[in-house]
Amino acid sequence: MFSLSNPEIRFAVEAVCEAIPLARQIQKEMAGESLTKSDESPVTVADFSIQALIAHRLSQAFPHDPLLAEESSRVLKKGQGTVERVAAYVRQSLPQATPEKIYEWIDHGASGSSDRFWTLDPIDGTKGFLRGAQYVVALALIEKGKVQLGVLGCPHLKNGCEPDLKGQGSIVIAVRGQGTWAAPVSDPKKFRPLKVTDHRSSQDAALLGSVESAHTDKTKLRKLLQALGAKSAAVLMDSQAKYAALAGGRGDFFLYFLPEKKPDYRMKIWDVAPGAILVEEAGGRVSDLLGNPIDFSCGGTLQGNPGLLATNGHLHPIILQELKKIL
Ligand code: AMP
Ligand code: MG
User: Fold this and answer.
1) pLDDT digits (tens, 9 = 90+) for 41-95
2) pLDDT, mean of residues 170-184
3) Distance of CA 209 from the midpoint of ligand 1 (Å)
4) Which of 6, 7, 227, 287 is deepest in the core (most CB within 10 A)?
């Protein structure tokens, strides 16, 4: 078991636990309001507020650590009155928050590159957040190109892996070499270990599916499921909640094909790093669609890795073999 008195672990758990009630509050008070980014994806007051809050906390806890995070002040400046609303929410935790401070905190550490840095997706699954479905707060520490620590705050998961839209939510943490653990958000000391399934045959394999079909290639996905004789998703989930569900044995695999309309799409480091260590430390495996390990040393975009495959480990070679035929 990891130690909550380790400074990095304590910081990450506290930061994510502080963010969850804020996300819930904003979701309740501003349902449905969002801006649109240049890639057509939505961004909300919650994304900016949580990034500002965690980035500021990081700058206090580890002043020399850079942060690669999803949002930027450039987009925030386009929304009329948005920064004032963000500042009002952040002031609940940090009374010194002004619009200028919010811009500064959101861009904290964005330009730095280093052997050691953090990555943050303040709201991963913003579409799920807007629909009242799955979303997570995702934070990871990367050292020398390897994820060392990942924490997901999952407001709509119970026991770290089961969908539960009405409950308290979970915090899920993985520390390199020390396993994957989940605790209720209401009691972030009661951790229990998560383990992937032991399914070894493709007929027993259950897919964890995405809600947004534009994030994959539906035709290829159908072909793969057919070839494997695998079970398609009973529950569809947005966000890195799927990594937690896989880590906790609620499914056997998921993957991101390159989307039909964007064959050059590459995932971002904050979409993958926090979740990937959860799966690996629970006994599973994460690679790109060709079976190569994910290279976390190339900045915000995972340039070297097309798509993604995450499995319980046993199924990884079987699925890669089928993927070779389909790709
Ligand atoms: P989901 O797991 O379905 O919530 O999808 C989230 C993932 O989809 C993110 O990790 C992104 O890497 C990926 N994604 C986001 N936008 C796009 C896009 N426009 N095309 C393809 N993939 C995307
Ligand atoms: Mg996000």
Assistant:
1) 999 999 999 999 999 999 999 999 999 999 999 999 999 899 999 999 999 999 9
2) 98
3) 12
4) 287
Query: Is residue 34 within 6 Å of ligand 1 at its C-beta?
Result: no
Nearest to 223 by CA among 215, 214, 232: 232
Helices marked H in the chain:
7-29, 45-61, 73-76, 82-91, 99-106, 126-131, 218-228, 241-247, 269-281, 316-326
Q: What is the mean pLDDT of residues 86-105?
A: 98
Closest CA to 252 of 285, 308, 205, 291: 205
Nearest to 26 by CA among 165, 118, 122: 122
Of 82, 119, 126, 216, catalytic: 126
Place of tokens 């925030």: 76
Q: Which of 182, 181, 241 is nearest to 209 (CA)?
A: 241
**Is 288 an active-site residue?**
no
> What pLDDT does 113 receive?
66
Q: Are 18 and 57 in contact (CB under 8 A)?
A: yes
What does the pLDDT look like over 205-215, one tens digit per residue? 999 999 998 89
Q: Whose C-alpha lies nearest to ligand 1, atom 15?
A: 215
Active site residue 197: no
- Give residue 138 CA to ligand 1 midpoint distance, Å: 14
